[in-house]
Amino acid sequence: MNEFLRKKWEMAGLSDDYIFNKVMLDYDICLEVLRRILPDLHIKKIKLPNNQQEFIVAPDAKAVRFDIYTTDEQGNHYDIEMQVADHHNIAKRIRYYQTASSMEAYDKGQPYEQADDSYVIFFCNFDPFQLGQQRYVLHKHIDEIPEQIIEDGQTDILFNVPSLRHDVDPKMQAFLDMIAQREVEATDPLVVKLKERIAVVKRNRKWRSEYMRRSVYEMDQEMREKKIREGERKVRDGKREILEGNRELLEEKRELQKGKREIQKSKREIKEGQDRLKEKEQLIQEREQKLHKNQQTIIKTSIVAMRELNIDETTIKKEIKEKFNLSDKKIKDYFAE
Predict the structure, then answer these.
(1) Confidence grade of residue 263 (pLDDT, cut at 50, 70, 90)
(2) Residue 79 and residue 100: Cα distance in Å, rounded?
(3) pLDDT tens for each residue of 57-97
(4) Packing angle between helix 189-203 and helix 17-24, nearest 10 degrees?
């Protein structure tokens, strides 16, 4: 026998849903537990508890399998569940269990007002609503008048087993302490029966083998679900990375387009600058040409004027050369005309 499974079996108590189910199959224990949960109903007797009762609400609907199911002499229906792990779906889960249980409360042809009452009871190894209560009793009410309860025959009761508030009566507290494996008063008749029943369950080889097979299956199922969740997580991460990559690529494209626009703008500015420079160069050239032409006119006019004054050529050349800073070649050109 696998050592881990053997120790798990030896350590398992009422908080283990398998042990809980086998213990609650005991008629006297189930009856007493219901009496402690619902003392105001004064339950006298119940039908022999049914383990793993299955109901199918509709042919294409999800089947529901009750842990412990029974009815009392008044026709009230009871579903008792041990919820080990918090899958964060407790409200919707209760709704479906209540629907299945309520379907049994309506006989064909029976008036609605004669429908039996239905109780769904969850023992949770966690705080089901994270509100700090030890017991939660749920009924429908009118939103505008919260204190007005709708008497539709449906009652949901949830126990926060780990809670230490002690808001329930001592007898009910003793049962919760047994589930939580806390110290319990040994003189309580139910406590005595529970311990004896647990011992009987632990000695049952058939149940032990069934527990082992179920535990192996659950571990395999948990491993498969873990791998599925891991695969889904990797897919989500991959999608996020792709989206992030697309965003980065889009941002880079925007930056590239921005860079291209800036380059085009720079090219336009350079072209405009070159055009302005060319215009200035042309203007300077025209001015230089104009100045040169004016200078030529002045020089020629000066030569003519000095000749009219009968100044000799040598003196005229010297005067023109110094005044206008001309080379000998330029002087020669002027006087060659």
Answers:
(1) confident
(2) 10
(3) 544 444 557 889 999 999 999 999 999 999 899 999 999 88
(4) 110
